[in-house]
Amino acid sequence: MSNHLVLNTSSQSRPPQSKPVHIHIARLASTILSPIAVSLPSVILVALYHAANIALALFYACIVLLFLSIGPMIYIVIGVRMGKFTDTDVSVRSQRVAPFLFGLSSSILGLLILFLTHGPKNLITVLLLASISGILMMVITFWWKISLHAASLASSVTLLTILYGTIILPAFLLVALVGWSRVVLHRHTVGQVIAGATVNILLVVVVVQLRGI
What we know:
Low-confidence stretches: 1-11
Largest sheet: none
Strand content: under 5%
Number of domains: 1
Number of helices: 9
Order of helices and strands: HHHHHHHHH
């Protein structure tokens, strides 16, 4: 009896096992390369591309970020606190429709504001891409949990490569990194990551071809 108690006390006193290093790296990469984090440098770089008036370009960049990222993220955070969503990634596929609709509406509203105020063409393209991508991702999500992390980053890197040239190409390694992180964290399958990136790369190429730079 006493030996049994000793064994129980011994097992209870063991410290909880820490997560493997690759899990911590995956979580860090997933956070740093999340859609809202990626949007900040991406939108600013797009706004500054051949900008005649830097101050005005940055002003419009702030408008784009408000409708593209900040507004939708506030909506999701409030939803998490109210218990509507499990986490800020909205990991449960069935919970994603409302955030998609809010984000899509926000992007379209921002697009209309830039269009009516004759905002920079490249930033209008950003919101146009976000709106089209939002529709595609939402429709696909009804049946399949496609990766928004991979989609968002692939879209940004592709557009920046078109604007700034081959100097941006190494950034595609970040697309692979975020894809790896989402798979390691069991948020997506390899196929869902590849599909998210591929669909948005093709979307950017087609839209830019039609609209020009």
